[in-house]
Amino acid sequence: QTIGSTVYGTVPYARTMGVKNILPRNNSELAKNEYATDLAEAIEEWEERVSVKEVCFTEDRETKVVIDYGE
User: Fold this and answer.
1) CA 16, CA 4: separation in Å to the nearest integer?
2) Mind giving me the DSSP string for 5-25?
3) Which of 16, 38, 42, 46 lies 20 to 30 angstroms, CA to CA, from 67?
4) Measured between alpha carbons, how far is 32 from 26 in angstroms, rounded to an integer?
5) Which of 66, 6, 70, 62 has its CA nearest to residue 40?
6) Could you read off the pLDDT of 20-31 as tens digits, one per residue?
7) DSSP 69
8) CB distance 66 to 56 below 8 Å
C-alpha cells in the first residue's frame, strides 16, 4: 500500500520510489493500463520479495493488486 500511494520523487534519499501517475484521471482503458504498468513496475522494483500477478480496478475506482510471494 505504501509504494502505491507514494508519489514518484517525493521520498528523500529514494527519489525513484513511488508511482508517477497516481490513479487514472479518467476511466479509460489506456489510463488504467498506464497506471497498472507503473504500479506493477514500482512494486517489483522496491519490494523484491513479491511479484505482481494482476492489477484490477473495481467499479468504485479502487485498485486491487494481486501479488505472489517469492521463495
Assistant:
1) 13
2) HSBTT-STT-TT-SBSS-S-S
3) 16
4) 8
5) 66
6) 877 777 788 888
7) E
8) yes
